[in-house]
Amino acid sequence: MKRIVVLIAAAALTLTACGGNEAATGSPSCPNGEVRFGIEPYEDPAKLTPAYEVLTGALRRELNCPVRLQVVQDYSAEVLAMQNGKLELAQFGPLGFVFASRRAGAEPVASFGDAQGKLTSYRAGIWVPKDSPVQSLADLRGKSLALSEPGSTSGDALPRAALAKVGLDKSALKLDYAGGHPEALLALTNGKVDAAEINTQQLATASAAGTFDASRFRQVWASDPIPNDPITVAGSTTPEFKAAVRKALLNLTPAEVAAVGKFLDVDPAGPLVAVDKSTYQPLFDLADTLGLSEGDV
């Protein structure tokens, strides 16, 4: 599915703060008169936008500053936007954060917690039709596999790493980058491929929407747990702004992040929890093991 850059600026986010206080332009929490928050469309933007407008609306209140949501085209565009000073905040996939850290100086601030306040995780997976002869990754030799898009943690890097461990490189099977997690799932359900990556986040979303019947398919591989997506701040921003963002994000209530959390298999949602670069060290190690660079995003 062809996707274009979608720039969404909710009018409500440009209104004055609750209680009649005007946005504190020039203050440490609002140095440029607005904060730009980027996300990559890991799900249909029409579904993501209302959920993120709840989160960014609450963030506007905490920062006393307009927050503009930007849904960019893909992982690469999001990294480039932060590198070029067009995003102060961004949510990245775990591997996307590795490249954003190295290329754009992104610093992780918070991620999504469960009802007990613990950092949540998800898993990558590869699924096949229930009646498929494929029983393991090794059986995918000569078969077609739908992946999401280059640079995806669960939809690209981890499946390819798992295939490499059983001696299958990209020449041993047909890899089809479908354009996203929903598209990879659809390629499988529509019979276009022999197998597809379906992570636990997409599995939960599609099952709840009635677009995936797990009883008709089998999972032949699952990854170890992956720490959930970090919300990051641009390294070029001031220490005062970074501190204000951290405080604001950690002050959000579970209800204010719940709509986004459902897309990340976090239900019931808890508050956002603090994270740092060490939280995602296994993804830095994965990138190095696979020899991945920014050009692979």
TrEMBL record:
A GO term (biological process) for this protein? transmembrane transport
Q: Which domain of life is it from?
A: Bacteria
Q: Which GO terms describe its cellular component?
A: ATP-binding cassette (ABC) transporter complex
Signal peptide from the UniProt entry:
1-23
Write out the entry's keywords from A to Z: Signal
Q: Which PROSITE patterns match?
A: PROKAR_LIPOPROTEIN (PS51257)
Whether Ligase counts among this entry's keywords is no
The answer on whether this UniProt entry bears the keyword Signal reads yes
Q: Which InterPro entries match?
A: PhnD (IPR005770)
The family note in this entry says: Belongs to the phosphate/phosphite/phosphonate binding protein family.
Name of this chain's protein: Selenate ABC transporter substrate-binding protein
What species is given as this protein's source? Actinokineospora globicatena
Phylogenetic lineage:
Bacteria, Bacillati, Actinomycetota, Actinomycetes, Pseudonocardiales
